[in-house]
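Ticket #4471: structure export looks truncated?
Reporter: QA, pipeline team
Priority: medium

Steps to reproduce: submit the single chain below to the structure queue and open the exported record.
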Amino acid sequence: MSLDDLAAMAEIIGGVAVIISLAYLAIQIRENARQTRLGSAIALNHLINEAFDPIYNNDRNIDIWTVGIADPSSLNEQDQAIFSLFMARLVNTLLTAFLHNDHKVLESEASERYIGSLKSILDSPGGKYWLAELGGDEMMSDWARNTLERSAHVQTFLTHGRGKVGERDV
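Actual output as written to the record:
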């Protein structure tokens, strides 16, 4: 075997090694992305659970939430203020799912589940009342309000909630 033959063989082996290295790198990048999405989903789930903590902290808060979500006008002024704070906390936390969805951080199924929870809360009598009568949309950040306004998932009942007041632009 001549020196030229050995050089050609080394070049082939080097090329194969580069291809194997690139394949390994691609696998590692894919696994890292999967781990990042998983970590993000866990963090979001934890954040959402923490958002519900004050509601489940005591019986009075549970009563305020359950009455507020079904018939918020029956709450006294102080309890309506507490209910409004619960709503702001939950809505803004659940809006994080939109951010994760926009950046493809969460699997679409997980995003849809959180967005569905947000829709359910905002579509409830309490959610509509919060938006229309308790100034819920003013309590949200500009980003949150814009996200809700551009979302096909929540646009209809966001408009409906605002429409009850009749003074605000849709």
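Status: closed, not a bug. The export was complete when the record was re-opened. Leaving a note from the reviewer for reference: Residues 64 and 79 are 6 Å apart (CA to CA).
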